[in-house]
Write a structure and sequence with these properties.
It is a single chain. Helix 7 packs across helix 9. Helix content is about 55%, strand content about 10%. Strands 2-1-3-4-5 form a five-stranded parallel β-sheet, sandwiched between helices. The protein has two domains: about 130 residues, Response regulator (Rossmann fold, 3-Layer(aba) Sandwich); about 70 residues, Arc Repressor Mutant, subunit A. By secondary structure, it is an alpha/beta fold. It is elongated and about 70 Å long.
């Protein structure tokens, strides 16, 4: 596994290198604080995993990251971030960054993320990725689906929902299947709980 670190603090680079060499004996890891040196190292290893300090690349520097990824399309970029910023994380997701590691993560977590990325997996901390709120997800349903869901949450059967809305039980069932998929729930109970939470 070839890993190149680009970080503002050489002491952080040395600490991570030492920890990872202990946890992953076969790792080939180097680091630099200089952009020119990073380009040289990536040129020599164009399919490496490149771990980049997120503080070195903020909004105005995103073009630099894009240039790096365009010139070396086989690299896997892992961002090391000091703090959670949903907007920034969203930008990284859109640019095919493979992973985010919180800067204060344990060496074991760094190791696990690098192992996953080396296998082609994407690793973003769940709590850092903006999840749509329950109410936003409800708004993504059609008006008819929302009516069906409201009656379901009130405890009505498919037949009763159909009578109320003047549609067949089969149509009610089709609406329910569609909204279960949309809300990522598995059954009537979960859908009713989802609706109750979102409308409280």
């Amino acid at each position: 596994m070839r890993v190149i670190m680009f970080d503002r603090q050489s002491i952080f680079i040395h600490g991570v290198i030492h920890s990872l060499q202990t946890l992953i004996p076969e790792i080939n890891i180097t680091g630099t604080c200089q952009a020119e040196d990073l380009w040289a190292q990536v040129s020599a290893s164009p399919s490496a995993i490149v771990m980049i300090d997120g503080n070195l690349i903020q909004d105005d520097e995103i073009a630099w990251l894009e240039a790096l990824m365009t010139r070396f399309p086989a690299i896997s970029v892992v961002m090391v971030l000091s703090k959670k910023e949903a907007r920034w994380v969203e930008q990284l997701l859109q640019r095919n960054v493979m992973a985010i590691i919180p800067r204060k993560a344990s060496p074991e977590r760094f190791s696990a993320v690098l192992d996953s990325v080396s296998r082609g997996m994407v690793c973003f901390p769940g709590e850092w990725v903006k999840q749509p709120s329950s109410s936003q997800a409800l708004l993504s349903l059609s008006e008819r689906q929302r009516e069906v869901l409201k009656l379901l949450a009130a405890g009505e059967s498919n037949k009763e929902i159909g009578r109320n809305l003047n549609i067949s039980a089969a149509t009610v069932k089709a609406h329910l299947e569609a909204l279960f998929r949309r809300l990522d729930v598995k059954n009537r109970t979960q859908a009713a709980m989802y609706y109750t939470r979102a409308t409280v």
